[in-house]
Amino acid sequence: MLTCQKHLFSLDPEVSYLNNAYRGPILKSSEEAALIDLRQMRNPFSMQPADFFTCVDQVKSLFSKMIGCEPKEVAMIPSTSYGFAVALSNWKPGPGKKAITVKDEFPSGYFSLKRWADENEGELVIVDGDPKAGSLGESWNERLLTAISSDTGVVLISSVHWMNGVKFDLEAIGRRCEEVGACFIVDGTQSVGAMHIDVKGCRIDALICASYKWLLGPYSLGLSFFGEKFKDGKPLEESWMNRTNSHIFSELTNYQEEFLPGANRFNVGETSYFILLPMLEKALEQLIAWTPAGVQAYAHSLKTELLDFQQSRGLGLDLSEYAANHLFALPLPSGTDAKVIKGRLDEQKVYVSVRGQSLRVSINVFNELRDIERLKKALK
After folding, report:
1. 243: three-class secondary structure by DSSP
2. Rounded Cα distance, 333 and 126, in Å
3. Per its UniProt entry, which superkingdom is the organism in (predicted)?
4. Domains in the chain and their CATH numbers?
């Protein structure tokens, strides 16, 4: 199993940062990559046309290995909302189809799906779990599968719920979507990099990820997968970089209608993302070395250290198959003000988030047992 990897980051040693789901810290290697690229900007005459594409191709290749697709099926995006817009603007199964998501889905996904439903004269269906069920995650998955029917046009959900860490059974949901002809769009922002996802095995049609959380990348940069449903899709913009002659700068006005293969047509303009892409490249290399399974196992070893603490106070901690190890809700005693508790934790340099009436704890490989012990001590 992995050991603590804190030495690869520049985190303040006095801080217990249990909040990777808010934003992941950058690696030392990513920081150095950014500085190298920044220094190269001093003398742009040394840049060659190939430099606009080399790092893009390498990042796509690395990401494709993580999610089980071909590099040509990966597109560079600036945000999840951009990726949702690409997918939903290219999916038109006909008017009156239902659009399904889950309760408290992240706003970018919710509003993107609401617009699609409004524009396609469809109903937006919000599925919730049963709070009285023995397992919230199990009941939520059951209800979601039941809601998907022949009149469903699209399902858009996060792979792991961003507020409480409930895992959705992507394989079962993808299979059901395929059966009824619905498009399956997944927001992987809170899982890709820390949890294994196979887009082909799960029959995912579009996977949309911001990079600044579990991919340990920079802000304003994301990665996406677009499958066969989008092979002839229309991009949101007409970037010169997405055409077949884009690598030949001297012939750019020999206008080519043909796009580069696959999802390349959906790349955002100015895809090269100098300074930012080298940071993400180093992060992806490190994540592949750790493996998502390795991150999950390491996070599980620390999460379980909270079980006795919670049980001693008559509180729960979900360790079921429907709960992520790297991101989870930590229930508080009834009547407790979560925001007040978070303020006290901040004072002791123990950082988590408040989501709903619970603390949201998110663990990565830079954390160690000392961080968990500091959290328990502060909560006492």
Report:
1. strand
2. 28
3. Bacteria
4. 6-18+292-379 (3.90.1150.10), 44-288 (3.40.640.10)
pLDDT at site 89:
98
**pTM (2 d.p.):** 0.97
* Nearest C-alpha neighbor of 85 from the set 243, 248, 233, 289: 233
Q: CB neighbours of 239 closer than 8 A, spacing ≥ 6?
A: 267, 268, 269, 270, 271
Which amino acid, residue 46? Answer: S
Distance CA(268)–CA(75), nearest Å, equals 8
- Write out pLDDT tens, residues 282-337: 999 999 999 999 999 999 999 999 999 999 999 989 999 999 999 999 989 888 99
| Residues sharing a CB contact under 8 Å with residue 2, sequence separation 6 or more, in sequence order | 290, 294, 295, 297, 298, 365
Q: Mean pLDDT over all residues of the chain? A: 96
Phi, psi of 152 (to 5 degrees): -90, 130
User: Could you tell me the pLDDT band of residue 357, with boundaries at 50, 70 and 90?
Assistant: confident
3-state secondary structure of 200: coil
**The residue to which tokens 């439903």 are assigned:** 117
DSSP letter (8 states) at residue 283: H
- How far apart are alpha carbons 22 and 212 in whole angstroms? 9
List Cβ neighbours of 155 (8 Å cut-off, separation of 6 or more): 99, 100, 101, 144, 148, 173, 177, 182, 183, 184, 185
Beta strands in 28-123 (DSSP E): 74-77, 98-102
Structure tokens at 235: 């991009």
